[in-house]
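Box 3.1 A note on notation
Throughout this textbook, protein chains are presented in two layers. The first layer is the amino acid sequence; the second is a token string describing backbone geometry. Keep the layers aligned when reading.
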Amino acid sequence: MVDKYIKSNVCPLPWTHLEVDVNGGASPCCLYKGSVPGVKVYQQSLKSIQDTEYMDNLREQFRNGERPNGCQSCWQEEDAGKTSKRQNSIYKMKQSLTDWTPNSEPTLKFIDFKLGNVCNLKCRICGSWSSSKWAQEEMDYGENPVALKNLREGGWPKRNPQFFDDLKEDLKFVEYFEFTGGEPFMIKDHFKILMHCVEKGYAKNIDIHYNTNGTQLPPQEIFDLWSYFKHVEVAFSIDDVGEPFEYQRHPAKWREVNQNLVKFKQRKTPNMDFQICSTVSIFNVFNWAKMALWVAQFQPKFFYVNTCFDPDVFNIQTLPQQVKDIVVDRYHMLTDYQPSIRFMNAADRDSQEIRERRKARILQTDKYRKENFGDMFPLLNNILKIYE
């Protein structure tokens, strides 16, 4: 029944879903540009946020067949022939949306929890909005009110522990939790949510999805807790292999992450699956074959190739044509990367202004971390001229 919406502009998320963002705000989904104005999840219920005028207006736009401006990430991917989050969500939620139409009443079934920005990594394609470590580094660069604000607001779960009790009333009809972050396995309070669902008997009807950087291995009792849930999916964010991985996901160690992934498999319960979520950016475009080989060896249930939208200067559409031609020539036979190639070639966004901003950002981070883009990616550096 909902299949017909995949090829339309309709997205069911504003009816069924809320993202709790790292600063305690809320938005229709994790890729939406903007948030519901004037709300904090630790000050009001998720249900009341879902019923705000802002969300009503967004739903009305979808009912009218419009493409809301906040959803540009999905429109860009779909226009380039790549499956978007909107379309993936419809596939994933198919069983729960059997009777859903754009005229249905909003019911909170899916919650994306970003319970603060506590994180132990400073990934090149991230920033202070999702990583407390990044916020500290950005403030070391010089006065940075945005980073300071993100560092302060990103710690909201510790300052508002009552949130986890107040939330319980919003969980009665939930069928799907997504925990990202920050690094979700460093945010221990989220296990309170899971324990409540087990105690109330909700767990058997709930799927859980995690996005983790692979550096944290939960204790055995957490695996035991997960066994009560309908299905648990752990997605490891792996963008590259070896030293390039360590450059892009500083200060992670490739060997330690690999060892953790092996231990996850050893502790796997029958209701668990693993996937690899790899974000394509300017840093890894020449390493796709190595990545594909490693994925084949790890054998996840699903390999998802994601797109870097922010920071924009690392989006692959901004690459010079010379780089794009090499990528197409090298990887036109790699099936998993064909949507990314189509997306890359769907727009020519190369410009002198983009090049200058990209170079400045990379050089600033390299200097602080005592790293060198040119040494790590010599062929790419010959074209991008980060180091001359």
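The mean pLDDT is 95. The radius of gyration is 21 Å.
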